[in-house]
Design brief:
- This protein has 474 residues and is α+β, with helices and mostly antiparallel strands.
- It has two domains: 235 residues, Aminohydrolase, N-terminal nucleophile (Ntn) domain (Glutamine Phosphoribosylpyrophosphate, subunit 1, domain 1), CATH 3.60.20.10; 186 residues, Rossmann fold.
- It contains 18 helices and 23 strands.
- The protein has a seven-stranded antiparallel beta sheet. Strands 5-6-7-8-12-13 form a six-stranded antiparallel beta sheet, covered by helices on one side. A four-stranded parallel beta sheet has the order 17-20-21-22, sandwiched between helices.
- Strand 21, helix 15 and strand 22 form a beta-alpha-beta unit.
- The longest helix is centred in the middle third of the chain and has 15 residues.
- The chain is globular and about 70 Å long.
- The N terminus and C terminus are likely disordered.
Length: 474
């Protein structure tokens, strides 16, 4: 199976207490489309049964007025997916919907469970049948366990079995529940509409889309239960020793610049990263140009700090998805060519500072640099607004295989030569962490520093559960 390049996390949206909940969830998912482009789904209820519509593709491809009307309800949870565990297929689309002894339950998950294979193996050994190859389904089997159901707080007990990154939305006929793991790897926020409906979303951009007000983040290790009686909260997981796991890549690349993530506006953080990059790596040049689109904020910061004008080297097609959704490198290369066109007259004869938010494999970046060379740029100095990515991620970013990373086992000079640039500088780890307000101990920087907040004893790739299934029937 082909390993894709870096992809986004999933996006969650939930709303409780609005007659138009399903349609508002549709808008919320549209605002979160950048977080997942493989599939989309919504499950709703009017206090009786749960109704579901989901499918492969983008939000505007999966939903229309007719199928939204068919699942109309006052409560809804939605999900846009990119697969960190399990293939891109219809069976893995979320929210997942199940029936068990306690009734129907729907679940949507953003993150990655590092002990999913171990837990699943135990349940399969006891005769449980799994319907998907997603790590999310493991949670349902834990919840349905009779001995867990007999406990005073079954959900908290189950959550304490999970290891890794997870934000969850669970929907029952009489309540909606939002959960964030004890280390707070992924963002999840709470808000409300003018009509009094309670809203949960992966990013505040989704609240803005439906004109809702941001109230606060769901805290690490918090379970928020929403019913007709209002909102209640409890915590699980115990002390973390002051450590956190907030994914710094949310600030660098994943989240929308308009969102507030981990208490800070993403755009302002990226601008500050660009400023610090300019201080660390000044160079004489005629123009600062970003690699669209995520590097624009950092390029602004670099330009302001250096005093070198910010320019434009590429035009962007708005009708092409991001290249990371393509399954092979050759297709990703073609997608980049279709999406980005060099403005030859703007770069010919110019000394360029090219700002990139991150460099993962390096092949796509090299193609962009080559296009600038062909257009007549005389010098190209690459500045990357994050440190070298030398380690895999096991908590929701799809590059667990470090051998695929351009910076793994290579010096900066060797990466520079591969990318064919005149100079290369990455933002230092210290500069990156100084660009955010939370304490460094609250962030996960494992892909840069190799220091993970959770010890990963047996790293597995996204297809491990599927291989397990195949072994069972061969």
């Amino acid at each position: 199976m082909q390993q894709p390049a870096v992809r986004h996390h999933c996006g969650l949206f939930g709303i409780y207490g609005d007659d138009e909940a399903v349609f508002l969830a549709h808008l919320g998912l549209y605002a979160l489309q950048h977080r997942g482009q493989e599939s989309a789904g919504i499950v709703s209820t009017n206090g009786q049964g749960l109704l579901r519509h989901a499918g492969m593709g983008l939000v505007n491809e999966v939903f229309d007025r007719r199928n939204l009307e068919q699942i109309r309800g006052r409560v809804a949870i939605g999900h846009v997916r990119y697969s960190t565990t399990g293939s891109t297929c219809d069976g893995n689309t979320q929210p997942l919907l199940f029936s068990c002894a306690g009734g129907q339950i729907a679940i949507a998950h953003n993150g990655n469970l590092i002990n999913a294979a171990l837990l699943r193996g135990k349940y399969e050994g006891r005769g449980h049948i799994f319907q998907t190859s997603s790590d999310t389904e493991v949670i349902i089997h834990l919840l349905a366990e009779p001995k867990h159901q007999q406990l005073p707080d079954p959900l908290a007990h189950v959550l304490n079995h999970l290891q890794g990154a997870y934000c969850l939305l669970l929907l029952f006929s009489d309540r909606m529940i939002a959960v964030r793991d004890p280390l707070g790897f992924r963002p999840l926020c709470l808000g409300h509409t003018r009509g009094g409906a309670i809203v949960v979303a992966s990013e505040t951009k989704a609240l803005d889309m439906i004109d809702a007000v941001y109230d606060r983040d769901v805290e690490p290790g918090e379970i928020v239960t929403i019913t007709d009686a209002g909102l209640s909260s409890r915590h699980f997981g115990g002390e973390t020793g002051g450590r956190g796991g907030a994914c710094i890549f949310e600030q660098i690349y994943f989240a929308d610049p308009s969102s507030v993530v981990f208490g800070e506006n993403v755009h302002m953080v990226r601008v500050e990263m660009g400023r610090r990059l300019a201080r660390e790596a000044p160079v004489e040049a005629d123009m600062v140009v970003p690699i669209p689109t995520c590097a624009r904020c950092a390029a602004m910061g670099y330009s302001r700090e250096s005093g070198i004008q910010l320019g434009r080297a590429f035009t962007t097609s708005h009708y092409m998805g991001r290249s990371f959704i393509m399954p092979t490198q050759s297709m990703r290369d073609m997608a980049v060519k279709m999406k980005l066109s060099v403005i030859k007259e703007a770069v010919k004869g110019q000394r360029l500072i090219v700002v990139e938010d991150s460099v993962v494999r390096g092949t796509t970046t090299r193609n962009k640099i080559g296009a600038l060379r062909d257009a007549g740029a005389t010098e190209i100095h690459l500045r990357v607004a994050s440190p070298p990515i030398r380690n895999g991620c096991f908590f929701g970013i799809d590059f667990p295989n470090q051998n695929k990373l351009i910076a793994f086992g290579r010096t900066v000079a060797e990466v520079r030569d591969f990318l064919e640039v005149d100079s290369l500088h990455y933002l230092s780890l210290e500069g990156m962490l100084a660009s955010v307000q939370m304490a460094p101990s609250k962030y996960c920087t494992g892909c840069f520093s190799s220091q993970y907040p959770i010890d990963v004893k047996e790293p597995v790739d996204k297809f491990a559960l599927e291989r397990s299934q195949l072994r069972m029937f061969t």
